[in-house]
């Protein structure tokens, strides 16, 4: 937590200051508060306070910030100084090709998770217009499910989540993206899923951080993503152990399961899956070069 108090904060953003100067000042304040990527946060927060897109803001950088925008910005900066992520402050986050509502009830969908969508699109290109059935286990904001339903236009899908608040956000995202006729959200533990028909695509980005490692995460994650979205038990593998039998029982014979994993789980998660008689086809790396997605078949 930063020790910049409200008065000092307010004094640093001059009334009627040009927008460009507000960005510079805001970035300096966030840097002093130990916030990650302070300039990027400052740009997004100033743009949002001014009700401009970051690119539209470029053309207006010499204009003075309005009193209303300045007040909004001060509020955003106070929140960012508590390490609340920008997406949670603004209530939305881009994922794949769309914007999604997010709140404190859901994990912020991450760019690395887009690899799940990329792999599904590539591996199932030949089935794109089939009426595929998609299951997203631990759907959170519903971002993965929505992205897949958009990429596979004749598919239907279900997202399961144990958090009622997350389910409410996922339902809103489904409505917003016009997918309500093709998607349903099931609120509950994925092990209680009663649906019997096989699924063509099963995806999951489950909680996979070892309990003991949570305290060492960056505060943006540790303090603002829900614990139930992070905590994978003693060795981080609890969720995979409960997903294995489910995938074994519910994946269609020619179906594909895609599981996100942590950077150090490229051997352990395939071992867990193989232990349930599943075939691990590949472990794909993300743009940062870290193992990120395990591709599983029957
Ligand atoms: C890492 S988050 C992923 C959220 C979203 N799919 C994404 O990638 O942005 C994991 C999600 O799994 C849910 N979850 C954890 N354990 C679960 C369980 N046993 N049954 C159903 N959902 C569960 C959490 O509530 C959380 O929303």
Helix fraction bin: 25-40%
Determine the CATH superfamily of the largest domain: Vaccinia Virus protein VP39
Radius of gyration: 21 Å
- What is the highest CATH level, the class of the largest domain? Alpha Beta
Bound molecules: S-adenosylmethionine
Give the overall shape, derived from the CA principal axes. Answer: elongated
Query: What is the number of independent domains?
Result: 2
Q: What number is the mean pLDDT?
A: 96
By DSSP, the count of extended strands is 9
Order of helices and strands: HHHHHHEEHEHEHEEHHHEHEE
Number of continuous helical runs: 13
Low-confidence runs of at least 5 consecutive residues: none
Any idea what the CATH architecture of the largest domain is?
Answer: 3-Layer(aba) Sandwich
Supply the helix-strand structural class: alpha/beta
| Order of neighbouring strands in the sheet with most strands | 5-4-3-6-7-9-8
Summary keywords:
Rossmann fold; binds S-adenosylmethionine; 7-stranded mixed sheet; single chain; alpha/beta; two-stranded antiparallel ribbon; 298 residues
Care to describe what's here?
This protein is α/β, with parallel strands linked by helices and 298 residues long. It has two domains: 6-82, no CATH class; 92-297, Vaccinia Virus protein VP39 (Rossmann fold). The chain is built from 13 helices and nine strands. The chain has helices spanning 6-12, 19-32, 38-49, 54-58, 67-81, 86-90, 114-123, 143-151, 164-176, 219-222, 227-230, 238-250, 268-275; strands at residues 92-95, 98-101, 133-137, 156-161, 183-187, 199-204, 251-260, 279-285, 291-297. The strands form two sheets. A seven-stranded mixed sheet has the order 5-4-3-6-7-9-8, with helices on both faces. The protein has a two-stranded antiparallel sheet with strand order 1-2. β8 and β9 (291-297) form a beta hairpin. α2 packs across α3 (38-49), α3 packs antiparallel against α5 (67-81) and α7 (114-123) packs parallel to α8. It is elongated, with a radius of gyration of 21 Å. The model has no long low-confidence stretch (mean pLDDT 96). The structure holds S-adenosylmethionine. The site of S-adenosylmethionine has 22 residues, from α8, β4 and α11.
